Amino acid sequence: MGLIVQKFGGTSVANAERIHRASLRAIAAKEKGNQVVVVVSAMGDTTDDLLDLAKQVCEFGPTKINPPKRELDQLLVTGEQVTIALMAMAMQALGHQAISFTGGQIGLLTDEAFTKARIQSINKQRIFEQLDEGKIVIVAGFQGVTPEGDVTTLGRGGSNATLVALGAVLKADVCENYTDVDGIYTADPRIVKQARKIDRISYDEMLELSGLGASVLQTRAVEFAKKYNVPLHVRNSQNDHEGTWIVSETPIMEHIVVSGAALKKDITRITFTEVPDRPGVAAKIFSEIGSANIVVDDIIQTINEEKTAYISFTIDKSDLPDARPVVDRLVKEFGGATNVVFQDDMAKVSVVGVGMRVHTGVAGRMFKALADLSINIENITTSEIKISCIVKREDGPRALQAVHDAFELHTTH
Ligand code: ASP
Ligand code: MG
Please, which pLDDT band fits residue 253 given cuts at 50, 70 and 90? Predict the structure, then answer.
């Protein structure tokens, strides 16, 4: 007997029948003697559809605007609100007591950063009261309210943040994340056919992988789970198989050299050519890029003989519209021979594993796998538990397959 928080993503609640099936799963957990809190996403593609509508209405005016963020959140929270009500009805129809709550109704307070708000606190009392009355509590994911009472959302995929935050404040025994795949894979199975489901992975490895585009879990949710040491179990809502457990690192994990590989396909490289080689130049570039809220992946600087430097960095392709004006302004400011080159045909292939801390030769093995296929490495970056190579986008899928083979990720070691 314990406390379980379950989350059902959009596909797992996409229609009435799936909402019924998800309800059965929550009821089954309750009947085993657990207290159960359920977090739900908007049905199917609802959030995308609402975003699309918002874009459409904004295009009619004489000046095109981006949907204002406060109103966007006002719109998007409706998606999850539909699901909670339907799920509470589905459970009651099955003869079980259940109650639904919006973010505001459980006092899930956030800051005022509309569309990407951060959770500040949750009033757990209301939830516990209902659990103690024997009810299943259903909470709308992805949403909160500001102290003034305006509704906010937590960024795309934000129901996971709700799941983990509830797990932390309620001190849940486990957070179950139900989705439409069996768990986390050694690589994207759409690209690597032999990719294998991982049984257990550490928070840090999962953080690296989700930062690299393994999109089952929002990075922020994993950070939160790590901070509060909440065990996460990612599993398929269509079957009863064990999924992937994301947990604190154990010594045994270091036996596995590489746990997973990932490919980030949409990387753009920006190169300043012939910038003045003097103190403060890099500081200027990266503080301005940072102020525009653009995350820089990796940086290379090379020095010329003529007292000028090349500074290259990579960003997500989707950040290019925000980066361009900043970069153009900097080129003007540096003056002289400084220019800029944009290359948007890059990809990044990476391997991740806590075992890298104790095993040697990992980088060599990765580079050889790519060399054997004549794939040129444009740049290399490493962290304690990750090695990444920037390659041409067209080489990406082959590169991912090659490193997956090189580290024999299709077999358990
Ligand atoms: N419905 C929101 C989205 O699609 C939140 C979520 O699904 O986690 O991003
Ligand atoms: Mg969704």
Answer: confident
For residue 116, pLDDT over 80 is answered with: yes
Which residues in the chain are classed under CATH 3.30.2130.10?
A: 261-406
Count of C-beta atoms within a 10 Å radius of residue 341:
11
| Structural contact between residues 73 and 142, judged by C-beta atoms closer than 8 angstroms | no
Tell me the CATH class for 261-406.
alpha beta
Q: Which residues of 183-219 are buried (b: 16+ CB within 10 A; e: fewer)?
A: bbbbbbeebbeebbbbebbbbbbbbbbbbbebebbbb
Q: Highest mean pLDDT: which of 61-70, 143-152, 216-225, 306-315?
A: 143-152
Please answer whether residues 137 and 163 qualify as being in contact, where contact means their C-beta atoms are separated by less than 8 angstroms: no
Ligand nearest to the CA of 42: 1
Pocket of ligand 1 (CB under 6 A): 9-10, 41-42, 47, 79, 141-142, 156-160
CA of 299 to the centre of ligand 2 (A): 33
The yes/no answer on whether domain 3-180 falls in CATH 3.30.2290.10 is no
DSSP state of 67: P
